[in-house]
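Self-study notes.
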Amino acid sequence: MEQIIAAVRDFPGALVLVPGPGGDFPELAWGDAFFYCAPDGRLPRNTQPYGTVVTKNLPGDTASDLDPPGRWRVNIHVGRTTLSELTGEEPRDHAVADTLLPHPVYGPHGWVCVVNPGPRTTDTVLRLLRGAHDDARARFARRHDHGDGS
């Protein structure tokens, strides 16, 4: 998990949030990680992260069985077309580790996930996170391009 978080922190303009006790985030988010493109260093408003790491089951999201110690899942927005190319459409066992799968809740919205990335999936996860970050950078640039040269 730390390898993935460290890699994303190295992306140009990346903002990685890892909430913990004493912060402004709810306890439910503690220990998880949220990946944004924020070249200005500020948490984007009205923008979802392009990737996350979750370390526990969440309400309505228990199919990956993340509550046992040592289990976690990386989630990446890749878009619907890429999701279909990578995973197909058949139902899957979302608790299996080191396998690229549609996200158990947000798959229809173009999200993939991997429980405990390992030798089979770590390189793919990092490549997909880089692509999602690059897409977020392009969106950031479009939102901040005023068309007047500023």
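Second protein, same conventions, sequence then structure:
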Amino acid sequence: MGDETTYKKEGGGASPHRIVMTPAARRALDAAGRLFYERGIHAVGVDLIAVEAGVTKKTLYDRFGSKEQIVVEYLADRDERWRAFLAPYVEAASTPRARVLAVFDALRGWAEGPEGYLVKGCSMVNAHAEISDPAHPAYPVIAGQKVWMLALFTGFAEGVAPSGADAARLGRTLMLLHEGALVAHGLHVFPDAIDQARGDAEALLDAVAGQASAHR
């Protein structure tokens, strides 16, 4: 996996059922996504989504079938947007080390963008606080996104660490830095959480690279 652009690959468990988006469904999903992120999934009903989207409740059920499917589409859409946002950052990086740091640069850009994607923290973490049942159709999207991020970091780590075991550990540590930065940024625990996580990741990569050189 090493140097491959793993952000383009599918992964993270079974793919959820998805629907074909019509213009009305897209309007509804945009409204639902905004409401779910701002107010919470359980706090937002289908009636409110219909009003905000300018569609009928019947149209919502005709297009999505259930509120649970709207939640699936909301979270899958967020994941797809993140992957698309991340891709050019990683593509511009020429080494595994640079690709790792590019993920943190992308996270900063995601946080600073006008869309407000991180104003209330990570949408997947927020959703997991409300959806912890693995039987829920949206659960694979939530867990799968984090599994994908771990695979991404681990793949890049393989180009830095001296062994597969070291790469696995480095990948987990990099993900912990990334996820910690997400939470700290969303809660405003301290300023510049993402920049600090990037700096810590850079120091860690340099230390591991030094160890790899010593083993050669």
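Instructor comment on the second fold: The chain has nine helices and no strands.
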